[in-house]
Structure formats: structure tokens, C-alpha cells
Write a structure and sequence with these properties.
The complex is a heterodimer of chains A (about 230) and B (about 500). With about 230 residues, chain A is α/β, with parallel strands linked by helices. Chain A is built from eight helices and nine strands. Helix content of chain A is about 35%, strand content about 25%. Chain B folds into three domains: about 180 residues, 3-Layer(aba) Sandwich (D-Maltodextrin-Binding Protein, domain 2); about 90 residues, D-Maltodextrin-Binding Protein, domain 2 (3-Layer(aba) Sandwich); about 210 residues, MetI-like fold, CATH 1.10.3720.10. Classes of the chains: A alpha/beta (about 230), B alpha/beta (about 500).
Chain lengths: ~230, ~500
């Protein structure tokens, strides 16, 4: 569960997020749809503590949200498995064997069991992203955040991402996906359209994406259709 | 400024008790010399370089015998002998030191034990060669730095070239036509100039020098004892016999020391031995087979010291450098600023100045370090600044996203540094760190300034006493390579290992 109330973030005189409030219920998958420069990534960084905000409050179930970076940010000097065991061992104090067991379970779940000992540099973009998801899940967060998970991926790989999101949904983890891709938003339980630091439209994807009311949503869908 | 330093310096030494008590208590007379100064003073026997020979070695032995103690030589660079004496590194300095009033301000001299003229040497058959003091004006003349000869040459308006190496270099340059003449004390001229048939030692007298023993300034008790001993050795003919053996006897010295056998001409056997040993350098392969094997142990001893100093200094540089880099990158502002000041200050001043300040300057504040500590400290403190920059570049090469990824996983800053940033930064820093170690290895030759006979100084001494620069230079180079190469290899291996995650490892 995520609960955000009247969140405001300014960079100097410029307000990037203006009194945003929303809630995501436990186990839901919600898409935060918005054009680039809308402030949606900043909002995400506020949610996981990488960015301080000026006003309002953020409540994350379990305290800390996991984050899957757009550029993955896997640790290049560690294998896929070691990427997933580092934090459980050092932060949660798990023994190596237990941490490895948990990590291997997650990698298997994400179809990566044969790549457990590969370094990130040897993996494809899609594989890297799944390792990044496994690394975040290894800390057993109640909430998982994604920053543009489908950017720069081809159609087949985007399907893979959707499949992964559905797999994670089955574990009961609350997911918030920041994206500018209306196609990805279709698979969410709910869509929030974000522009100029505000939520301009929200509802179920069938409603928001089929009959968009706001100009921003319409423009995003047109751009997608043009591709 | 210079005066103030001098006054502080003098007041610091004025209270010291007489060195005579130490000499008697330890039964040892420590005398400062520079073996690189060469023949005939105190130098390594070209036939067996494990032994120090020379007329001053024999005088020191006779003096020590007279005092009922043993003579123990301590090596230091010639130009630093008087500061080292003042610092207490040895009890006396005796190494062709001219008793001038200027030097008399920083030490006390005994009565003179030798006197000789300055001699001008030129190339044989050089029609344009200067032959009188007046002709020296505008000519290029070689000599030793801070010697009486240098003073005379400057006054005569000559273009002076001074050499920090040995006397052999000075005459070599004359032979090669790089200078027009050499003005030096007669003993040096006899041993390095006169033995070369291509050079001509001119008969004219260009000024008289007097050698005396230097004792710490104001140490009248030690001076008196040495004066008495010298007078006795002069009267009983010991000194005269030494000078005859070394081909150095002259009437002025005989008068000075009251030599009883004024009219007996001597046989200069030691001079002849020297002339035969080094007069003509044998072909390289002959040296390689017959001479160099005997030198290997000496070189190995120098190499061991070089390696020990370099490793100790590098360990210090690595630890301090890492702390500086962390302070600069992650520390609070005042700490980062302080680290910055340190790095800029140390990096911007010469290592040799830092070494001299630590060894000769710090005793003023009561901090007296032994040569090894001072040498390692100077090198370590200096290289810490370059190491800090290497690590900083390494730390900066790790993208911000890596820090953020670690933070969202809950790793603390220290854990992030240790498990995420440092391993990546280290790989980037290894090549420059290796470069620095090789540079430090070579810079460690500077510790010869503070009486440590390391690898380079071993070479310089031997080259001076055997007149063999090229062959021994090759040998010493091989030693440096033998020390440095394993570390380069090790670094390459470490870099490959830390970089095994990269698709194309740098090999």
C-alpha cells in the first residue's frame, strides 16, 4: 500500500510536484502515465527516499519501497546472484546460504536460473532488468516501484516486462509503474495521468485509455499510434 | 630570513654537551664522509668495493687509535656533511673539507691536516685552453659546488659548471669538450685529471686550500683532543707516511704538520695501485666476467634498502591517500577543505625540500627522526597526495546511480563504499597507482641525502671509485627493473581480476 498526501516538491522557485495526493491499495498494479518532463520521475524518487520533498507526507507499507531503475544500475562487478544477495546479507543480516537460496528462487521465478553466475555485462537488456527486479524483491519489499521499465525495449521484450509484472502481482507486492507508454498502462489495475506536477486524470485503463478526457492523455495515445 | 634560521640553528646546538663524551662512552668515532667524492679521500676500493680506502680512511683510523676508540664511517652527501654533523648524525666530518671562514660559521674546525694548491687541468694540445687566472674570464670551467675553487672561479669571471656527481664526471666532461678546464684541489686533480693522458695538469698555483676536521660548532673539548692527536700524528711521521703512500706529500704540508722526514721522497704505492686499477677501464665483457660479480652483493644490499624504503613509503601513501580521498569526496566541508590544502601544498612543492625539512628542519622543534623514518615519511607523505588524486578519480568514475541503487536497497554509506563503490573505483585506480609505485621506487634514491646508501647511491659511489659509469649503470638499471617489474605484473593481474566482469578485459 502507498499513501501520498499533498506532496509538494520545488526546485528553487519552480514547483515540480504540486500537492499531489493518491493511494495504491495492497497488491495493486498502478501505472503513473505522463510525458517526459512532467515530474513523474521526481515523484518516484520522492517515494523511495532518493529525493527530499518540501511538503506533504508519504507512507509506504513495510517502510522502504524497492526501486527498479530505468538504467537498471546493477552492480557491474558482481554476478547476477551476488547482486541479489548483497543487500539481504549486509542489510538484513542473512547468512550467505539463506540469501543465495532466496535469490536463486527469485531468479528462477523470473526465468534467469541459468544466468545466476553471469556478470551484468554478459546479459541482454531484458535479462538485466529482470535481475534488477529480483535484486529489489530479494529485500522482500511490500511495495515495488519501476522507472520507465519499457523504454528502449522492442515489442517482444515489452511483453516480457508485462509478464514479469503479472508474476510479481501474484506475490501480493504493490506495484507502481512510472511510464510514458500507454500500451504498458493498459495492463495496470488503474492509471493515473500526470502532467506539470499534477494528476490530471485517473481511473481504470478501460476508461482512461479508451475515452481519454484530458489533452495530455490524448496526446500520449496519439504519439503511440503514430509509431 | 637566512640569518634568523642560522641563529635558531646555532642556539639549538650551543647547549649540546661535547661529543667527546659520546665518543669515549661508545668507544666509537663516527666520521662523516661521502664515498662518492672518490679518490684519494675515502672511497670504495675499485679492486674490492666492500672496503673503504683512502688517505682520510687511514688518518681516521690513526686518529681513532690515538683516542683509544675505533673509527666508524657514516656516509652522507658531501654538500650535506656539515648539516648532518650539526644534526648529530656523526661526531666529526673529514672529507676534503676546506676550512673557510664561511663554513666556520656552522661548525668548528680543528687545525689543518693537509694543504695543497688548486690546480687547473685542460685538454692536452688545446691551443685555446686558459692557462692563467686572467684567461679564465668567460671560459667554461668545471668544479665541485660550494668549494673554494667555485668561489675563485666566480671572482675570476669564469662560466662555472658545478657537478653533484663525482670528480670523475668533471674530468670526463672536460675530455669530451663540454668544458674548457677544471679547477680542483690537487689531490682530486692527481687522481682523476692527471691519470688521463688526454688531459694536462697545469703547474700554476691558483690558490691554496687547507683541509681540516669539522666538529660540531662550539665543541672545544673535542676540537682540543683532535688537535693534540693530529699534532702527535704529524710529529711522529704517521701523517707524512700516509701522504707519501698516496702520492700527496708536498713541502707546504710537511711544514704544516711538522713532518720529521722532510727530505725523504716517498714511494706512492697507493697512487700506483689506483692508476693501474682504473687508469684504463677494461672492455665490457671483461668487467662483466671478472669485476661485476664482486659488486653484486653491494648492489643487492642497496636494492634491499631501496625496496624496503619504497614499500614502507607506499604503504603509508596508500593508507593516507585513501583517507585524503575519502575526506575530500565524502567528508564534511572543513575536512574536505583541509584535505585539499594538504594535497595542493604537498603536490606543489618538491620532494627534496620536504625531505630536507623533515630531516634537518624538524629537529628545531625537537623532532629528531632517524634516516629511515624520515625518508619513508617524506616519500609517503608526498606520494599520499598523488594517491589521493588517483582514488578520487576512481571514486568519481563510479556513476551516481550506483550510489542510489545501493541506497534504495538499504545499504549504509559505509557499506555502499565498501561493497559497491570501492571495488569499482579500485580497478580504475590500479594503473595510476602502479605508475606511482614505479615513480616512488626511483624517487627513493633521494634518501641518499639523509645518509642511506640505497641502490642509486651504491651505483654513484662505485662509478666514482672505478670510473665506470656505463657498465655499472646497466647493472643498476637491471636491479631497478628487477624490483619494479614484478609489481607491474602483479598490478596487471589484479586489474584483470577486478575487471573480469568486463566483456573486454584490459590485458
Amino acid at each position: 500500500m502507498i499513501r501520498v498526501e499533498r506532496l509538494t516538491k520545488r526546485f528553487g522557485a519552480h514547483t515540480v510536484i504540486a500537492e499531489v495526493s493518491f493511494a495504491v491499495e495492497t497488491g495493486q498494479l498502478v501505472a503513473l502515465l505522463g510525458p517526459s518532463g512532467s515530474g513523474k520521475s521526481t515523484l518516484l524518487r520522492c517515494l523511495c527516499g532518493l529525493e527530499r520533498f518540501d511538503e506533504g507526507s508519504v507512507a509506504i507499507q513495510g517502510g522502504r519501497a524497492g526501486l527498479v531503475f530505468q538504467s537498471h544500475e546493477l552492480f557491474p562487478h558482481l554476478s547476477a546472484l551476488d547482486n541479489c544477495t548483497l543487500a539481504p546479507m549486509r542489510v538484513s543480516g542473512l547468512r550467505r546460504r539463506d540469501a543465495a537460496q532466496r535469490a536463486l528462487g527469485l531468479l528462477r521465478q523470473l526465468g534467469l536460473e541459468s544466468h545466476a553466475h553471469a556478470f551484468p555485462d554478459r546479459l541482454s537488456g531484458g535479462q538485466r532488468q529482470r535481475v534488477a527486479i529480483a535484486r529489489a524483491l530479494a529485500m522482500e519489499p511490500k511495495v515495488l516501484l519501476y522507472d520507465e521499465p519499457t523504454s528502449a525495449l522492442d515489442r517482444a521484450l515489452r511483453r516480457e516486462v508485462v509478464a514479469t509484472l503479472s508474476d510479481v502481482r501474484k506475490t501480493g507486492v504493490t506495484q507502481l509503474v512510472v511510464t510514458h507508454d500507454p500500451w504498458l498502462a493498459r495492463f495496470a489495475d488503474a492509471v493515473m495521468v500526470f502532467d506539470s506536477g499534477r494528476i490530471v486524470e485517473q481511473g481504470s485503463p478501460d476508461l482512461v485509455l479508451v475515452r481519454p478526457q484530458h489533452a495530455t492523455t490524448q496526446r500520449l495515445i496519439e504519439q503511440q499510434d503514430a509509431q | 630570513m637566512k640569518r634568523l634560521a642560522l641563529i635558531l640553528f646555532l642556539s639549538a646546538t650551543a647547549h649540546a654537551e661535547s661529543r667527546l663524551e659520546t665518543v669515549r662512552a661508545t668507544k666509537q668515532l663516527r666520521w662523516g664522509i661521502d664515498p662518492q667524492g672518490g679518490a684519494p679521500y675515502a672511497f670504495q676500493d675499485p679492486v674490492d668495493p666492500n672496503h673503504l680506502i683512502g688517505f682520510e680512511v687511514e688518518i681516521a683510523t690513526a686518529l681513532a687509535h690515538q683516542l683509544g676508540v675505533t673509527a666508524h664511517p657514516v656516509a652522507g652527501p658531501w654538500a650535506q656533511l656539515l648539516p648532518l654533523l650539526a644534526r648529530g648524525d656523526f661526531d666529526i666530518a673529514m672529507n676534503g673539507i676546506e676550512a673557510t671562514t664561511e663554513k666556520g660559521r656552522i661548525c668548528t674546525f680543528t687545525r689543518a691536516y693537509y694543504t695543497a694548491p688548486q690546480r687547473l687541468t685542460v685538454r692536452r694540445g688545446d691551443g685555446r685552453a686558459p692557462r692563467t687566472l686572467e684567461q679564465l674570464r668567460g671560459r667554461r670551467i668545471g668544479t665541485l659546488p660550494s668549494s673554494l675553487a667555485e668561489f675563485l672561479l666566480r671572482r675570476a669571471g669564469a662560466e662555472v659548471r658545478t657537478y653533484d656527481g663525482g670528480q670523475d664526471d668533471i674530468y670526463r666532461d672536460l675530455g669530451l669538450g663540454r668544458t674548457d678546464g677544471v679547477l680542483l684541489d690537487e689531490p682530486a686533480t692527481l687522481y682523476y685529471g692527471a691519470i688521463d693522458p688526454a688531459l694536462e695538469m697545469l703547474p700554476g698555483d691558483f690558490g691554496e686550500i687547507r683541509y681540516a676536521i669539522a666538529v660540531p660548532r662550539g665543541d672545544e673539548a673535542l676540537k682540543r683532543v683532535l688537535d693534540d692527536a693530529l699534532a702527535e700524528l704529524g710529529k711522529n711521521g704517521t701523517l707524512g707516511a700516509i701522504y707519501r703512500r698516496w702520492g700527496l706529500w708536498n713541502p707546504a704540508t710537511a711544514t704544516l704538520i711538522g713532518d720529521p722526514e722532510f727530505h725523504t721522497p716517498g714511494v706512492a704505492e697507493s697512487y700506483e695501485t689506483w692508476r693501474i686499477a682504473v687508469g684504463k677501464v677494461p672492455p665490457f665483457w671483461q668487467r662483466l666476467v671478472h669485476r661485476y660479480p664482486g659488486f653484486l652483493l653491494l648492489f643487492a644490499r642497496g636494492a634491499a634498502l631501496t625496496l624496503l624504503v619504497s614499500l614502507t613509503a607506499m604503504a603509508l601513501a596508500i593508507v593516507l591517500g585513501a583517507l585524503l580521498a575519502l575526506a575530500r569526496t565524502f567528508g564534511p566541508r572543513p575536512l574536505a577543505w583541509a584535505a585539499n590544502v594538504y594535497i595542493e601544498f604537498i603536490r606543489g612543492t618538491p620532494l627534496v625540500v620536504q625531505l630536507i625539512m623533515i630531516y634537518f628542519g624538524l629537529p628545531e622543534w625537537g623532532i629528531e627522526l632517524n634516516p629511515f623514518t624520515a625518508g619513508c615519511l617524506a616519500l609517503g607523505l608526498n606520494y599520499a597526495s598523488t594517491e589521493a588524486e588517483n582514488y578520487r578519480a576512481g571514486l568519481a568514475s563510479v556513476p551516481l546511480g550506483q550510489h542510489e541503487a545501493a541506497a534504495t536497497l538499504g545499504l549504509s554509506r559505509l557499506q555502499t563504499l565498501r561493497f559497491v563503490v570501492a571495488p569499482q573505483a579500485l580497478r580504475v585506480a590500479i594503473p595510476p597507482v602502479t605508475n606511482d609505485f614505479i615513480a616512488l621506487l626511483k624517487d627513493s634514491s633521494l634518501v641518499a641525502l639523509v645518509t642511506m646508501t640505497e641502490l642509486n647511491k651504491t651505483y654513484m659511489n662505485l662509478a666514482s671509485s672505478t670510473r665506470d659509469h656505463l657498465g655499472l649503470g646497466l647493472i643498476v638499471s637491471l636491479y631497478y627493473l628487477a624490483i619494479g617489474l614484478p609489481f607491474s605484473q602483479l598490478a596487471r593481474y589484479a586489474e584483470a581480476r577486478l575487471g573480469r566482469h568486463l566483456r573486454k578485459g584490459v590485458r
